[in-house]
Design goal:
alpha+beta, SH3 type barrels, Fumarylacetoacetate hydrolase, domain 2, 2 domains, eight-stranded mixed beta sheet, 28 strands, 30% strand
Chain lengths: 400, 400
């Protein structure tokens, strides 16, 4: 790159952010490398450590975040501090430049090996919209919704990195009242934030200690086959309607980069159980602004800050029963929907289950995703000193 | 052991069975080894291969089944044939005896590393019992039940091997109409068969090819916190009510050992979609007889042969949407319940949700599991030439 200092001037990916990724150079036959993003470049951490601090090399050797996730929060902090020092020091410009690759020259991979994957349902507006669409005579929230963050396990093996095509799933669904097998006819997105855990532990954990076990955040698109889901989900929840693919952005933003984005969760309508009560803990809601682009056209701006439950509450709830948490466990927030129409995080809500189609400037009218459609979700949060923390984007194209 | 031939005479674990396990000798500091069971001994496969066929050593080197699961069905067959030849040949008695350990001298471990874990709901009688207990005014099967095997993802990270204690989970549940946090008050079992996949593939697969991607079977106990589950499960299904622990038996019986147990699935009340139609494929229901022991007392004998969907149908359904299947993916059948009272595979059904307590000879009257209770589930199937295929058992003790 031209110089570390010129990259430091690029808003969104300056030294306040430094999200991790796994990348390959060139044709994909090369080994994956662990990197951090600086400006529009990716720094290859292992050779930089070899030149600047050989004691760090082991942490970067796997080519992804797995080894770091297995480490302790103290180690996460030391590694981040070292990297920040390297890129901001006048002394190391040459070393940094030597191991920096323009982002358009790299192939981004899954940044870690996912273990278990849980998806929550933590946006009140989304849950209300679902109630109004599917149970108009009884649109209330589920009975336990205000007392715990409802969640379920998804398929970890089909978490895929941004840029991977999504093949339209097949399954049984009702067509004109008749059950038929065929391609999904209501393919949808869910705009979410995802989190990856580290520092595994046998539950339960204290809410105040959640940051000891959550490493960082990324954007997540929980692709959903609404018709397949509708036919299968009673009584055990979503299965094949979700399990074909869940895309995540390639950049894992450490929680440490999100300190300026921390805000309180919304006022509580009902008191929470002690283990979920965040009134006396450090705020763990996050002021992240998402944007959903359908074939390059912005159709929605979901606000993460409205979520009723925070990532810390989700992590704490996930293991309150005593379940273990492993480094590499992933959880998603659930669809993020704000109160306004253009803040809805799924096309089911945006089109009100197809009743109010969306007209795209380039591509006509849509009730749901067509083959060839591309969905990109971006996200940004306030960083320290007026900076911006950019999450990059998660992008996927539908193939038939 | 005294001799290979004397072990071969022990019914249940003769050369027709040869289930795999992962084991350690002594104090547990040793490395895990991949073994097969012969009689009441475990054979350590790696050193046997070193002496008898060095080309096999690599397959046994990981100390568990992971490498074999990643191989092909052809390799599974060659490995099994080699082992069967070794133990039945007159020539190899000394080598076999040298690397055989009495079963009481070994510690059994998880036989493979689980990836995704799916649990099905494939017993009609169980689904009917659940309907009668929880929806007496509308006890019908869920609408899609006869058209697809309903399933959901569980927590792979809390799959544990037989013999591991199970700590009573905590969670939110209703007590006398009030929502309270505390220890589970209705702790239950679910007697199931489990299956582990190998030879990973991107779905879909043909029903006739399911055996190319399912390696073997074991007993599974899906511990369930009924009160926690009841409060949380609408609308996304079971989560913390199940995710604290799922126990499996340590012996993975290869499908090849179950040929004599294959029978047809029950008659269909409604036609199945083509991808699930097993009328023209090799039968894939299995005549396995389970037994549930509550504090050493037999309380139930669930018959696996009554399951409405077979393991091949479950595997095929799991990836019909296009999802990938990985070596190490696990699926459970769901609770196995027959038509008779003493064939019910959960205590919720046996006690009819607590209304009809069970009286144990040693331990008094029970509506559900108490701390200190031990549950053991055994299973047996017919083997070739009048032999018996014994699955051993899955056992767990409840701690407070």
């Amino acid at each position: 790159m031209t110089s570390a200092s010129s990259q430091l001037a690029k808003p969104g990916f300056d030294h306040h952010n430094l999200p991790y990724c796994s990348f390959m150079i060139g044709d994909g036959d090369a080994d994956a490398k662990l990197g951090v993003r600086l400006g529009d470049h990716v720094l290859d951490l292992e050779p930089i450590a070899q030149e600047l601090d050989a004691s760090m090399v082991g942490w970067f050797a796997m080519g992804n975040l797995d080894r770091i996730l297995a480490g302790s929060p103290q180690m996460w902090a030391s590694i981040r501090k070292a990297i920040k020092d390297w890129v901001t020091s006048d002394k190391h410009g040459e070393v940094i430049a030597k191991h920096a690759y323009p982002i358009e020259k790299v192939i981004l991979r899954m940044p870690f090996t996912p273990n278990d994957y849980v998806d929550f349902y933590a946006s009140e507006q989304h849950a209300l919209n679902v109630g109004k669409i599917f149970r108009p005579q009884n649109p209330d929230l589920p009975a336990s919704w205000k007392q715990l963050p409802i969640g379920y396990h998804g398929r970890a093996g089909t978490l895929i990195v941004s840029g991977t095509d999504v093949k339209r799933p097949y399954g049984l669904r009702r067509v004109d009242g008749k059950v038929e097998f065929g391609p999904c006819r209501f393919l949808d997105i869910e705009a979410e934030m995802g989190f990856v855990c580290g520092n595994g532990v046998n539950g339960p954990i204290d809410l105040a200690d959640a940051d000891q076990h959550v490493f960082g955040a990324f954007i997540l698109n929980d692709w959903s086959a609404r018709d397949i889901q509708a036919f299968e989900y009673v009584p055990l929840g979503p299965f094949l309607g979700k399990s074909f693919a869940t895309s995540i952005s390639p950049w894992v933003v450490p929680l440490d980069a999100l300190k300026a984005a921390r805000i309180s969760t919304p006022p509580r309508d009902e008191p929470l159980a002690k283990y979920l009560d965040d009134s006396d803990t450090e705020p763990s809601a996050l002021d992240i602004s998402l944007e959903v682009l359908w074939n390059d056209e912005s159709v929605s701006s979901p606000p993460f800050k409205v979520m009723y439950y925070s990532y810390a509450q989700m992590a704490t709830h996930m293991v309150v029963n005593g379940a273990s948490l492993r480094a590499g466990d992933v959880f998603g927030s659930g669809t993020i929907s704000g109160a306004e129409v253009d803040q809805r995080g799924s096309f089911m809500e945006l089109t009100w289950n197809g009743a109010e189609p969306v007209t795209l400037e380039n591509g006509g009218t849509r009730k749901s995703l067509m083959d060839g459609d591309v969905v990109e979700i971006t996200a940004k949060a306030p960083g320290p000193d007026g900076s911006v923390i950019d999450f990059g984007s998660v992008i996927g194209r539908i193939t038939g």
